[in-house]
Amino acid sequence: MEDLDISSNQKRNRLIALSFASVLLLLVYGPLAPWFLTADRFLYDTFSSGLPNRPLDNAIIISIDPARASHEEIIAKYGQVLSVLTRSQAGRIILPQPPELGPDERLPGWSAALGGPVPVYVPNSHRLAELTPHEGFMEFRPDDDGVLRGAGLWQLKGAVMSPSLPLAVALDNENLSPSGRMSVSDDTVFLSNYEELPRVPIDEILFGDFASTRLNDATIFVDHEPALVGAFAVLPSGQFVTRSELTAALIADFETDRSIMHPAWASALQWLAPVLLAILAVLFLPERDRRNIGVICVATIVALLLLEMLFLYVLRVRIDIGRAALIFIGVGLLSLWLVGNPRKATQDAFKRGSDFLAAGRLEPAFAEFRRCSASDTLATIMYKLSIAFEEQAKPERAEAVLEWMKRTQGAREAKQKKRAGVAGVPKRLGRYVIERRIGQGAMGAVYLAKDPRINRAVAVKVIPIEKEFEDDELKEARIRFFREAESAGRLTHPNIITVFDAGEDKGLAYIAMEYVPGIPLKDFTDSKRLLAPKRALDLAASTAEALDYAHNQGVIHRDIKPANLLYNPKEGSLKISDFGVARITDNNRTKTGIVLGTPMYMSPEQLGAENLTGHSDLFSLGVTLYELLIGEVPFKASNIAALMTKITTEDPAQIAGKRNGLAPSIDSVLAKALAKRPDDRFSCGAEMAIALRNCARYS
């Protein structure tokens, strides 16, 4: 029955996804295409901006400043510079935008030189084109967002196909063999970025000491459009270019065979891609869980981006897959919604199963419980279900329940029981049933245990109090232990592990506290596993806020260090553990010594056995943050005596330049937190938290 339900849901989800994908295809490539073209253009602009190009070899732009000359003077200067270039035997001269000549205006005398030995290229729409065989059309049309991404290659002129001016220049180059990548059917070439050519003012050519040998056999552009000021188009790279610069970029692409094309097969592939992606999304996404859907979507989008980059960077072919990627993402988001929240689904199934079990409807209860994720709570209620089947004289169903548990949880429980049986691990402390050891510290071990009264998992911190203290000190230690446990038990804060209970059994003092699955921040102090600076600062700020709360309750931690801060990366949460535990044997220095408080994190006043305030915890937090940010503590020495001297007398080294992403203000925050005198530190944890969050904002 359950399998049939799953199959029915998958079919329903696929049908919904298919309908949604079909509508998206019609809209994205139909009436809403202008809106969604932005995705294609954004990807093309991003990738093409970094495309490696080469400028024209032996080419310069001679620039005439139109602000300092009249129309007649500009025409005259064109003649003067053409005369110099002809005498210097320039390779080719290109006039992308010669001065305008009215229909009744006489042609300048120098126009006769256009038919000379040096080829002069002009736009075919200009009157000068009548005097030279070297001409081509100049037509550039930006997209509706103002960016010029493509330029025409061919234009029908009468019954003859006429090339663009840049293409005409490239086709006349006898040193180049024709490229097989371009055909007459390709009517557009695409632009990327402009590799700058040197600009030389005309006065340097006419009156300066510009060497005529540099003009010999060179490609010369002559224009009266100053760079930037005279720009008429914006490239995908964001560069503003003049007509000369644009023409130079296109000629360079043609002559180095780096032009970006969009052949017919690429166009077909571009239209086929969204259909294929929509089919794949409909076939494979609706039947997956949320995690797999996310992985598939991310992997597919990355593959599409790499594919577009491959075509552009290797084949110099433009293929737009932005809209296709949007369709795939849309179906992926729909599939996530259709699958639903697995945690909520598990909770709902568990609640329904519990209601069925309470009503004596065991079969529906079993069906609902099988939808839940494996957990200790589920194992407990499944045992109850198997007993209920036995009571209804249905041993085969009870066996089915146990068999299902064995398949889903048997290995997990067996592993836990094996760990619980390790020598030296107590099986029970007070009313708590010990399952396994989950930690070991200087003062004892931490166990995962179960409170059988309410079937709740707890962490039990165990201290061998009778071994730590002599008989005459044991009574005082017991009093201090329960007093500190009581103080810690009053703390209720989302970033502090809650203490439930304290007691003594078999010569062991124990504290039962909230069990928090997490990773000690000690695991992130290795220089190869450091947290991102912003994350480390945010966690330190949360710790400071929790310490501020505890200090206002009159409780000091005394042992803040990475090992006592538990971090849950999945939820992004942090909990402080061991509140009050360091105080329990604080007076027993003859046995545990100063190592109890982990000396490298201790404040100067703690090392001097002075009365402590909350400022001591803030100092330890500063040391902890220092280590989390760069992977080393601020004070290091080969022995405790030298370490104490450094902590009490030396200032820590600054760290802002030791790692990328650290705001310069972090050093002032750490300096204040690690001040030798408590009064020179932050006044409270809340103040320190504000400073840390300000640093995180710029990290």
Write a structural description:
By secondary structure, the chain is of the alpha/beta class. The chain has five domains: 2-48 and 277-339, no CATH class; 59-255, no CATH class; 346-414; 428-514, Phosphorylase Kinase, domain 1; 519-697, Transferase(Phosphotransferase), domain 1. Helices cover 45% and strands 13% of the residues. It has 22 helices and 21 strands. Strands 4-3-2-10-1-9 form a six-stranded parallel sheet, sandwiched between helices. The chain is elongated, with a radius of gyration of 39 Å. The protein starts with a helix and ends with a helix.
> Judging from the principal axes of the Cα atoms, what is the shape?
elongated
Structural class: alpha/beta
Q: List the total number of helices.
A: 22
Largest sheet: 6 strands, parallel
Can you summarize this structure?
The protein has 699 residues and is an alpha/beta fold.
What's the arrangement of secondary structure elements?
Elements: H1 2-28, H2 33-49, E1 59-63, H3 71-87, E2 92-94, E3 120-123, E4 135-136, E5 150-152, E6 154-157, E7 160-163, H4 165-171, E8 188-190, E9 199-201, H5 202-206, E10 219-223, E11 233-234, E12 240-241, H6 243-255, H7 264-284, H8 290-315, H9 322-339, H10 342-358, H11 362-369, H12 376-391, H13 395-420, E13 428-429, E14 432-441, E15 444-451, E16 456-463, H14 465-468, H15 471-489, E17 499-505, E18 508-514, E19 519-520, H16 533-552, E20 565-568, E21 573-576, H17 581-584, H18 604-607, H19 614-630, H20 640-649, H21 666-673, H22 685-697
Parallel strand pairs: 1-9, 1-10, 2-3, 2-10, 3-4
Antiparallel strand pairs: 5-8, 6-7, 11-12, 13-14, 14-15, 15-16, 16-18, 17-18, 19-20, 20-21
